Amino acid sequence: DAKTTQPPSMDCAEGRAANLPCNHSTISGNEYVYWYRQIHSQGPQYIIHGLKNNETNEMASLIITEDRKSSTLILPHATLRDTAVYYCIVRVGGNAGNMLTFGGGTRLMVKP
Amino acid sequence: DAGVIQSPRHEVTEMGQEVTLRCKPISGHNSLFWYRQTMMRGLELLIYFNNNVPIDDSGMPEDRFSAKMPNASFSTLKIQPSEPRDSAVYFCASSLKASGRGNQPQHFGDGTRLSIL
């Protein structure tokens, strides 16, 4: 699996956009980028995933660079409830990629 | 809609006792995963089932751990005998079969917080 690198922690002001970076310079052509988050005392929660095009859903946007070596998760209007650990994971598609490997993630603190 | 349901939410027991953790996946999901989370090691995959069949158990720490999925709506993770180092939060997750657009998201339960004294 491609290794991912994320900053250990970030702060964001409530109501502002939170931009969480992830480096995956060794990503291969058939590997997807997934984002999950874990709010304290809860199980991880799927946010979004993509291959090479930018993606958007009701929770967030995912921007993947053209060379696919890095990506950014954007929470457009962060709220206090978005305080969590955010995990960037790179995995192949198909059944072989079902097993997720969680790294250290980024601890996002949204402040009033 | 009911999510992944795990029981018990908390378990405290003495070392040497048998511990059984239970999971009910989301109806219609055909992949099920057991994870363990500790401060030292983070979130680790223990075992993965597809259509009730164990596919990869390479993450199971040792023979004291066993997992079963007798049907599509129920799975257990058993530790016998339990040891203090097994203390952790154990998560169960389920997903649909992978589609042509990458893998389906995994939906996690709220976990079982296990303490072995």
> Helix segment count of chain B?
0
Biggest interface and residues each: A-B, 24 and 27 residues
Instruction: State mean pLDDT of chain B (0 to 100 scale).
Output: 92
**What are the segments of chain A in which pLDDT stays under 50 over at least 5 consecutive residues?**
none
**Structural class of chain B, please?**
mainly beta
What would you call the structural class of chain A? mainly beta
Give a short account of the largest sheet of chain B: 7 strands, mixed
Lateral strand order in the biggest sheet of chain A: 1-9-8-3-4
Strands of chain A, total number: 9
Helix and strand pattern of chain B: EEEEEEEEEEE
Radius of gyration of chain A: 13 Å
- Beta-strand residue percentage of chain A: over 45%
> Kindly, what is the distance between the CA atoms of the first and last residues of chain B, rounded to a whole number of angstroms?
36 Å
Produce a short descriptive summary.
Chain A is mostly beta strands and 112 residues long. Chain A is 0% helix and 46% strand. In chain A, a hairpin with a 5-residue loop joins strand 6 (61-64) and strand 7 (70-75).
What does this structure look like?
The complex is a heterodimer of chains A (112) and B (117). With 112 residues, chain A is an all-beta fold. Chain A has no helices and nine strands. Chain A has strands at 9-13, 18-23, 31-38, 45-50, 55-56, 61-64, 70-75, 84-92, 106-111. In chain A, the strands form two sheets. In chain A, strands 1-9-8-3-4 form a five-stranded mixed sheet, with no helix packed on it. Chain A is globular and about 40 Å long. The termini of chain A are far apart. The relative contact order of chain A is 0.34. With 117 residues, chain B is mainly beta. Chain B is built from no helices and eleven strands. In chain B, the strands form two sheets. In chain B, strands 2, 4, 5, 6, 9, 10 and 11 form a seven-stranded mixed sheet that branches. Chain B has a four-stranded antiparallel sheet with strand order 1-3-8-7, with no helix packed on it. In chain B, strand 7 (65-71) and strand 8 form a beta hairpin. Chain B is globular. The A-B interface holds A 32, 34, 36, 38, 41-46, 49, 51, 91, 93-95, 97-104 and B 4, 31, 33, 42-45, 48, 50, 55-56, 91, 93, 95, 97-98, 100-103, 105-111.
